[in-house]
């Protein structure tokens, strides 16, 4: 029944059966079937259905709060009974570019405070880590700020702002970034990623036409491709990727510079382990 409860929560958060299915990897009919099973098990309807729309009713609102509590408790079942005395378990997700820098510094601080704490770090892209947090698989996620709003039961803590720059091969002559980006083959930050969407919006906003060549969701890969003379790339200047290869140079976007915001996404305190608050403080200190 825990899967049905998670699906119910997803429908409430994302508004429709179809939107919930997209986020949790189910078809609309599968979502509908799970909700029907849940309603049959509970003995009452959770939604008022009119045509193709479904609106959460009073019983559904009461059930939602209880379902969130149950799923939060279920997520803690992996903690052994003596974990509290031994420091507990912290499950975090982190995008690759933060693991060896920001997250490593924060965990070093946290380990000094809680030497017996067990930590599990899950790698992944921001969207998947958001879904893992939503499903209760992790306690917090260090990710790129989502380009859409933060769900009401989650909180966001901003940590670093990474400026986007144009990475070009050293052999590509010229100091005008706008000319280079239109003349050279373009190495595109994958548009399916949060960071890649920022690049796409920037190009559209500025009316810049590029010669798409290679698309990749891997910033170090884009930088090294540029160093091999394969083209130019708009990427955030990330601590983990410094120093840059000798074969590239960096051009600032000047007053048009935009930033990738990296921060901590977590559930609100009532549904989050206390150790997450300590980890968040360590992250703030590490970001400074």
Describe the structure.
By secondary structure, this protein is α/β, with parallel strands linked by helices. It folds into 3 domains: 2-76, Winged helix-like DNA-binding domain superfamily/Winged helix DNA-binding domain (Arc Repressor Mutant, subunit A), CATH 1.10.10; 78-160 and 261-287, Periplasmic binding protein-like II (D-Maltodextrin-Binding Protein, domain 2), CATH 3.40.190; 161-260, D-Maltodextrin-Binding Protein, domain 2 (3-Layer(aba) Sandwich), CATH 3.40.190. The protein has 12 helices and 11 strands. The chain has helices at residues 2-14, 17-24, 28-42, 58-75, 83-86, 96-99, 102-113, 126-134, 177-183, 194-206, 219-227, 274-287, and strands spanning 47-50, 53-56, 89-94, 118-123, 140-144, 154-169, 185-189, 211-216, 232-236, 248-251, 259-267. Strands 3, 4, 5, 6, 7, 8, 9, 10 and 11 form a 9-stranded mixed sheet that branches. The longest helix has 18 residues, at 58-75. The chain is globular. The two termini are 44 Å apart.
